[in-house]
Amino acid sequence: MFIVDVPASKSVHPATLTAKREFSVSSIKRILVTGGAGFLGSHLCERLVDEGHDVVCLDNFFTSQKSNVAHLLGRQNFELVRHDITQPLWLEVDEIYNLACPAAPGHYQFNPIKTVKTSVLGAIHVLGMAKRCRAKVLQASTSEVYGDPEVHPQPESYRGAVNTLGPRACYDEGKRVAETLFMDYHRSNGVNVRIVRIFNTYGPRMHPYDGRVVSNFIRQALGGEDITIFGDGRQTRSFCYRDDLIEGMVRMMNGPDEFVGPVNIGNPDEFTIRQLAELTLELTSSKSTLIERPLPEDDPTQRKPDITLARARLGWEPTIKLRDGLSKTIEWFRTIDMRHYRAPTPNY
Ligand code: NAD
Ligand code: UDP
Hints:
Elements: E1 2-5, E2 20-23, E3 30-34, H1 39-50, E4 54-59, E5 78-82, E6 95-98, H2 105-108, H3 112-133, E7 136-142, H4 169-189, E8 192-198, E9 201-202, H5 213-223, E10 227-230, E11 236-238, E12 240-241, H6 242-254, E13 263-265, E14 270-272, H7 273-284, E15 290-293, H8 308-314, H9 322-335
Parallel strand pairs: 3-4, 3-6, 4-5, 6-7, 7-8, 8-13, 9-12, 10-15
Antiparallel strand pairs: 1-2, 11-14
The structure holds nicotinamide-adenine-dinucleotide and uridine-5'-diphosphate.
């Protein structure tokens, strides 16, 4: 056994609230998190560091900033590597969470060719590493593999309706190929894989200018700007708070090897975009006005996960209601200085 310092911090997992914890050396893993400085990646790194693992966070900071992981830099079991996952890398690890990929429509459409490369080459590189190291590797896939779904809610068995030619295809098809690569490395090379399909997730550390609906609405409401509803606002999404999501992802990684997924991780409580706008106005006490803007091409009309499989195989289900999660997110948005955030770096 050995002792790891765990600084008391406001945003830690409850298990870390003691000043020092003991870890058994045999349970400590070397874990790579690609996209580890992003919204979800930074929370995942935080959790894994708090559990005592030896964590390598890899990121090229395309849609994130070092401040997301700055609080981890002094920890002896945390390492930050600036690297672009489209280039090969050589590390020895036991587990890999592959999150590197722009996730917001505005971010992934900024350089769509790069988005495809990130998903496809990124998957090849982490799978190659997992094969060499005999590591376990988890892919952060997405509900976007279902496209604009004709089946509602969406179970994992639904094969999707993606427009291969549209502006969302760089992301959707890139993630679909990544899933294919994961299954082929698993079948052909025996690589120990996991696939989770993440549905809309929100929370503190979302990029305030990522253009996603939750960040846009909160930023606009707090700034007294008009709230931009795309289309008539009757399209639906199901919003999962980040803590629930991270719990589901970690359970999947730690689950039995024979359960490779894909498994939906998301909150099945479904809301129209107009309802989300109204709730945001209420929780921020904002006087902003709702205005309609054109609906982007191929914008899915409905989305709600069927989480029967996650409940049965992982014993997982979300615990945080939208009202509560949104309040926490608004609280965080009130604390940040927007001038420290910038749009995606040009020429990536
Ligand atoms: P994010 O943009 O905050 O995080 C992605 C991270 O990947 C960023 O830190 C970014 O700089 C990094 N990155 C991008 N391209 C890279 C490259 N070529 N090399 C190295 N790093 C690179 O987004 P997020 O919401 O935290 O999403 C994380 C993962 O979860 C993504 O793979 C995304 O597709 C998936 N996902 C997220 C959601 C959601 O609602 N948040 C939904 C479905 C899937
Ligand atoms: N949306 C909106 N106003 C905004 C941003 C987004 O009405 O300012 C809508 C968007 O058209 C979509 C939904 O909100 O129907 C969710 O968009 P987001 O970009 O967050 O995620 P995704 O479409 O990938 O689910």
